[in-house]
Amino acid sequence: MLKILGFIGVYFIFLGKVFKKPQGMKVFWRLVMREIYDLGMSSVGLVAFISLFMGAVTAIQMAQNFQGADIPVPDSYISYATKVVLILEFSPTIISLILAGKVGSYIASSIGTMRVTEQIDALDVMGINSPSFLVQPKIIATVFFNPILIMISIGMGLVGGYLIGEATQMWSSSDFMIGLQMPMADRHYYYTFIKTVCFAFVIASVPAYFGYHVKGGSLEVGRSSTAAVVWTSVILIILNLVLTQTILS
Amino acid sequence: MIEIRDLKKSFDEVEVLKGISTVFETGKTNLIIGQSGSGKTVLLKCLSGLIRPTSGEVLFDGQDTTQYSFEERQALRGEIGTVFQGSALFDSMTVLENVRFPLEMFSKHPMREMNKRSEEVLDRVNLTKESFHKYPSEISGGMQKRVAIARAIVNRPKYLFADEPNSGLDPKTAMVIDQLLHELTVEYNTTTIINTHDMNSVMEIGENIIFLKDGYKEWDGDKNEILTADNEAVIDFVYSSKLFTKLREVMLKEKNASKS
User: Pairing with B242, which of A202, A209, B51, B217 sits 20 to 30 Å away (CA)?
Assistant: First the structure.
């Protein structure tokens, strides 16, 4: 317990250093652009692929449940339920967990390698605030780009649902389109957006913390990368519950 | 000039530096020598501010830097050029970008001028234009060291620190790096401090040498004095190779002959 409290304390001290005013704004913004590519753009393909198939699977499961129900449920509810599942949970949470693995391990290992090869010492000795220089662009890039990734995920999930309906003829395309147009409460959208932004912050900052505090060699970089992914996932799951309870209840 | 007074540093229960006092002179290559674990790297990190000493004073041109605020420390670091043991070049940047990096961070010159200055220092460390746009992983260890030196001097530092700059290099390349550091010290009139345990470096550029043992300053002198020093620990360190044992015999004979 003490160890966890210690971790939380050092994490917030670390964040304090990360959010100091960045030096060398030209270099800083160039780094932000590079991180948007490395952490965001490079994940578009993976997110689109997973969402397309998961959207299709979700739609089939909804159809199986609704079409076998004791009371008649209109087919349009298949796409409505798929949309709700994608927007509320699948895209923001599951995709964030996947990104915690992909992006989190990249952040922890790249910063960890910089630590063990003295590149971070080199920044410090030049008079550069290394946490701010290295981590702030990653957080900005992730917080900016993750909502875009989640929107892509929702869109691709719905396309997956539509395409599987066309392929299997389990429901008509017109029913599917009607369901998509059924309204959802505004606060559901806010909830998804807030979740996405909070998760993005965790996905960038927790692995950065682990990478920055690596001591040792390549083995420790590997270990910290694994620990970063595990802890990021744990925090995302707990945060998911806290945000859901706070916003939706 | 850098002066340290009764410098101590402990990590938990372990005392690594046990009260070191010495002066590193400007325009000279000052060498810190000693066996692995003697406290050389910790001393250099205390000087560059990467580690805060437990007690004692570190005076840069008379100013005690141990009491500096974060901002003052950052300003001081702008005057220090450091060459790390493993070069510590940024993997994601080319050779030219690595050298230009300190200028981009701290100067407001146009890019053309920054490129000009970077190419100037890369020329100075004898790197050819073909290597300017290569990444650190694409060049040899010796070239990486030269790039690290170029990056360290690009801002015309007042103080130049190097932690085992020729470790992992062949003897010839190591000598070239030593000579380069010595020439730059004279050219830029820097206070240069080099950590090494390489006796070739000591004999090549050791104008002011301090020998550390178990966290204490055991001996100081220059390259001419070290071969005939009568300190047991220094003799043990210097004459670990047969070549130097023979050299000591010759030197002592010459010394005795000149006395008589």
Answer: B217
